[in-house]
Amino acid sequence: MRFLEKHRVAHGLRTRYETFGTKVRGDDLNRPARFWAPGPRSRLPQWRITAERWPSRRQVGYISVDYHERNLSAAVLPGQDDYAAFSEEDRRLYAELIVHGLAVAWPDAALEMQFVRHSDPAGTPWPTPLAAFLAHAPWIPQTVALGATSEGVTFATADTAWWWHGVQPPPQFLGVVPATLRSRRSAKLAARLGLLRVRSWDDSETALDRLCYLPDLVQADAHLRDGRLAHEIGQEYEKAWAHLLSAGAGTRTADDGRLVPPRQLLITRAGVLEPLNPTEADETVFVPDPDGVQNGALLGRVPVPVIPIRDKALGGRVHTFLDRRTTFDVQRCSDAEHDIQADRLPVSDAPRLPLTEYAGPWLCTLVAALVEFDEERASRPAPVAVVDVDNLLRRCDVTVADAAVVWIAGHRLTENGADRALLHPHPDRPRVVVVHSGPRSGWRVFRTAAHAVAALIGAPYLAGGLWTALTKLEERGLKTDRVPDEDLSVVLDLRPNQLRAVLAERAS
């Protein structure tokens, strides 16, 4: 084989060129539904539809005169008119030959003709009968996804198939072209599949297609609603939103059309995936956002629709997009109605103590230092100011309770048994409610409150660092009412002058 290839002996499925001397009026080229050409009658409908959608076709300038095909020929594929009678094995082999031709063997004239005239030498590109066949026939093999109810390879048309160009394996829930075809990777193949409108799952330009496909997939296969595959589907759904609404991107399609939201959404309801047509369901759809970390966790435990997005900044963009382009009720998680009872008392009536009295001024210094020396502070979408941190902590109260009841979006949740902290926002006196069932040691209260305190200052990403620092302070055998600056420097791995800078900024 290598010897033959070296000497330019061709192999594969070679295209056939039929004589095409038909004259076509310019008006018929501009309106492909009126296009006519001799040949098998079955070809003409799909040829017209393919021409209507052909990406490179353009309007010609002379509508009342005739155009001709530049080379007076039109490419067809041997066997394309008999494809319906092919066996499954024949179709599989035929697909391999087609992909070889698209990737390597076929010239551009195999897919595209050129209608011209002497006064319009540019004319317009036009799909060949071969291209029309590839755009409409179910020739693309699709693997069976893991756990799918169907068996065996199926064959899909160009507008329903999924390709995968990446080196890494595709998602397990997805039916795509088999590995034998995926191994053919080239820029020419990708470009020609694009002409035929074959979608690639790992192409950012197919984001809207993926957003539409995933809810339908989950609706068709109930086993995809929870478990490992559901988690993977949620990740891919978030990735599709990220591609559609990438930071700084516009809100128009590649052909300058206005982006239209998908008809159905993929949502989680109490941790289970399901499709939702929000125009048919009279309920609010919640979207995670940077200020709604606590509410998002609570909403995930009750039967309300939440769009599965972990990147809260992306969630904010999704909310803005849906809010401006849809008529259904969509809310940020942070805007969900909620209330708290602590030991059967409304939170406003529950016993409380100012956070700075419970801890001492060292806590303000610790949190301010975490904010000031956050290694990723420059890349945060809304970095927190140290002066704002100090102000919020000084106005915050703490309530420690044995049990709490939370209402979120009209649903009741009981918090008892496990250590938990809840933030109750208030413009003047925000409150951190710490739920404990055992001994209420100071360090235990602070560690439990770490996530709520981080949410209070608008920096939920610092919760882990705050918890770690509090744990290290406890391990040093310190009391919660007095923590020396030297110990803060050690647990935060700061030089003394760095901590002094934080103290000076707080003092100013």
Summarize the structure in words.
- The longest helix is centred in the N-terminal third of the chain and has 18 residues, at 88-105.
- The protein is of the alpha+beta class and 508 residues long.
- Mean pLDDT is 90; it is low at 249-256.
- The protein is 37% helix and 18% strand.
- It is elongated.
- A hairpin with a 2-residue loop joins β11 (265-269) and β12.
- Strands 2-3-5-6 form a four-stranded antiparallel sheet. The protein has a four-stranded antiparallel sheet with strand order 17-16-20-21, covered by helices on one side. A four-stranded mixed sheet has the order 18-19-23-22.
- It has 18 helices and 23 strands.
